[in-house]
Design a protein that fits this description.
Nuclear Transport Factor 2, Chain: A; 14 strands; alpha/beta; four-stranded parallel beta sheet; 7 helices; FAD/NAD(P)-binding domain; 2 domains
């Protein structure tokens, strides 16, 4: 059942005002009272500095009480750039969906909420709906905001360097890591690795991405010939560079592969192709990793001077169709898996 947008906005604004008052009180029980008995709170880094899900008011109250003072929300507000509040059906329920933004001492967060009246059969116009589902996420860290929009670099640094390195010289040297070790090492230059690398680059984290394939995008190029994405283009955008509006709804795999390769170049990502992670050891005393890489020329590199403090492995399957020997990998004795990319001409 639908309702005019103005009605949805009025209901949500009144609810947000009440919810913000209880958040300002600092009393977890008052905040949790806004959730239905079957309500859920899903937090991604904003309140708990972790990925946590809490079910029911009692558990939600306990989760909120465990939050540090630095993570306590303040300045709750409706974001004008988001989709306006709306009333619609979800999973057989009439709900009001809306977004709100908030701040913490750590940074800026966003929340998505689905509200539902307590009384069964209500059409969603109740004056005091309660939370069925709420998702809270940390969008940026204070002091490490993304260098985009008004915070972008002005680009004048190389316009007056007539005798020194120009932008391209500097770019190539940065990608070589000859004079330093990366702060973060990402294993795998697929869409997840590239998206993470782009985000880290924009908050000033010196990142190296290593990819076993010869070219960025080969994890798609080398699959069966008729492959296309199974979900729509608009649900697969990468940070900062969305796909063009003229692109087809379902992207062919080679079109996506070319985009990923261009994305790495346009976003100035430091990617070493034909490079494998041979092994890694954690130094608990220094709280750093020692990573051993095998590069395209067969030479090895042991990053151990100021070894990367963080590692992230974006795992797919290896080029030979098998998974790497990582601890904890699910094994199914006697189970054989046929992999379609072993036969490039296989059609859907």
């Amino acid at each position: 059942m639908s309702a005019p947008a103005t009605v949805a906005a009025e209901i949500f604004e009144k609810w947000l005002e009440r919810f913000a008052d209880d958040v300002r009180s600092g009393v977890a029980q008052r905040v949790a009272s806004h959730f239905r008995d079957d309500g859920y709170l899903r937090d991604i880094l904003a309140l708990t500095w972790d990925y946590r899900t809490f079910a029911g008011p009692a558990e939600i109250q306990e989760g909120i009480e465990s939050a540090s003072p630095a993570s306590w929300p303040r300045n709750l507000r409706c974001p004008p750039e988001r989709i306006a509040p709306r009333i619609l059906r979800r999973s057989g329920r009439t709900v009001l969906e809306a977004y709100f933004d908030f701040d913490t001492e750590v940074g800026r967060g966003s929340a998505f909420v689905r509200l539902q009246p307590d009384q069964p059969g209500d059409d969603g116009n109740a004056e005091d709906p309660r939370v069925w589902m709420m998702l809270t996420t940390l969008q940026e860290i204070r002091g490490f905001e993304e260098r985009i929009g008004d915070r972008r670099l002005d680009g004048t640094a190389f316009s007056y360097k007539f005798g020194g390195d120009n932008w391209l010289d500097t770019r190539r040297k940065r990608a070589q890591f000859a004079d330093r070790d990366p702060e973060v090492l990402i294993v795998g230059a697929g869409q997840a690795g590239l998206a993470l690398g782009a985000r880290l680059a924009q908050i000033g984290v010196d990142t190296l991405i290593v990819e076993a394939n010869e070219r960025v995008g080969d994890n798609w190029r080398n699959r069966y010939e008729s492959l296309a994405l199974h979900n729509e283009t608009w649900s697969n955008h990468l940070p900062y560079l969305p796909f063009p509006d003229s692109w087809p709804t379902f992207l062919p795999k080679d079109k996506l592969a070319g985009w990923l390769e261009a994305y790495a170049e346009f976003m100035e990502l430091n990617v070493w192709t034909s490079t494998r992670l041979v092994g890694a050891d954690y130094d608990s005393g220094r709280k750093t990793w020692r990573a051993r890489l095998r590069t395209a020329d067969g030479a090895g590199r042991d990053d151990n001077r100021d070894a990367p403090g963080h590692g992230d492995r974006q795992r797919g399957r290896r080029a030979d169709g098998t998974e790497g020997p990582w601890p904890g990998r699910l094994r199914r004795p006697g189970h054989a898996l046929q992999r379609v990319h072993q036969w490039p001409r296989l059609r859907r």
